[in-house]
Amino acid sequence: MDSTIEVQGRQLKLSNLEKVLYPAAGFTKKDVIDYYVRIAPAILPHLRGRALTRKRYPDGVDGEPFFEKNAPMHRPDWVRTAPIWSEGNRRNVNYILCDDVATLVWLANLAALELHPSLAFAKDITRPSELVFDLDPGPPANIVQCCQVAFWLREIFEHFGLKSFPKTSGSKGMQVYVPLNTPTSFDETKAFAHALARLLEHEHPEQVVSDMKKQLRTGKVFVDWSQNDEHKTTVAVYSLRAREYPTVSTPISWDEAERAWKKKDANLLVFKSDETISRFEKMGDLFAPVVKLKQQLPNLKNAVPEEELADSEQADVAKPQRTLRTVPKRASKTKPGKRRA
């Protein structure tokens, strides 16, 4: 079934609205479009102005997906794009900028279920506005163990006077964001994230791994620091995920994370599309501060001797035994809910 609708003065032709994209849930393309329309006030501030990579599922979540970076030739002329140079392709890639509801609906109609924005704005792709830690559990670990690692990260951030914000990945794990919105570079954010990942691995070797080799992850949480890169993206807050059911990468409060950790119940942090909409209508956007909150990234050179930072490849930016000096030793022992003032 096809139809033509008007969104913000734009004419959009929608196709195959009854096509089931999530077979286990009977969730159709029409349902996908409806979700993104209803969640638009929440998700658009986190997409606006950012180069957007889409993961499309034309045959549904059980079919073969593909990532799409370049804007398709058949796009409407009102869909904004940003040319960004690709070293790998030796040419500009025209990324879509999802700045309005009409573009969001157009993408949903293309079965772009998952939306993955850059950590930087397209106008200055070398300058990230946020820092992210992607916590990926290796079975039998799950999001409950991710919560514990997130608490350790939170305490380190608090030591530096930084606020952090957690969200579920909508899949197995979770992410922790630190808004910056101040001048920095990916070299700086990536180095800082790598140093903290190695610190946690050093402090908690039975629970944390900072090396991305999958054979090392069994029963541990991989702290993926490498997402802080000009060429990588992380799934957007409020984006659908291509799981069996239409789960969503949903912002959560630290209290909710602590509750799930104490109860050891991963299901407390699984939210489907209707639940995420209800949460937004009731709680507002828990991730709103990530867009505007200005925070300075700590300078690791003030915490680590200059000579150890001279060659970041050799010194790994900040060796754990040195970095430990910047964080209170008792921080790793503090339990959730027992934060110090």
Characterization of this structure:
The structure is a single chain. The chain is of the alpha+beta class. The chain folds into two domains: about 5-115, Alpha-Beta Complex (DNA primase, PRIM domain), CATH 3.90.920.10; about 130-230 and about 250-270 and about 285-335, 2-Layer Sandwich (Alpha-Beta Plaits), CATH 3.30.70.3300. Helix content is about 30%, strand content about 20%. It is built from ten helices and 14 strands. The protein has helices spanning about 30-45, 100-110, 145-160, 185-205, 255-265, 275-285, 290, 305-310, 310-315, 320-325; strands at about 5, 10-15, 20, 25-30, 50-55, 65-70, 80-85, 90-95, 110-115, 130-135, 165-170, 175-180, 210, 220-225. The strands form four sheets. Strands 5, 6, 7, 8 and 9 form a five-stranded antiparallel β-sheet that branches. A hairpin with a 5-residue loop joins strand 11 (about 165-170) and strand 12. The longest helix is centred in the N-terminal third of the chain and has 19 residues, at about 30-45. The termini are far apart.
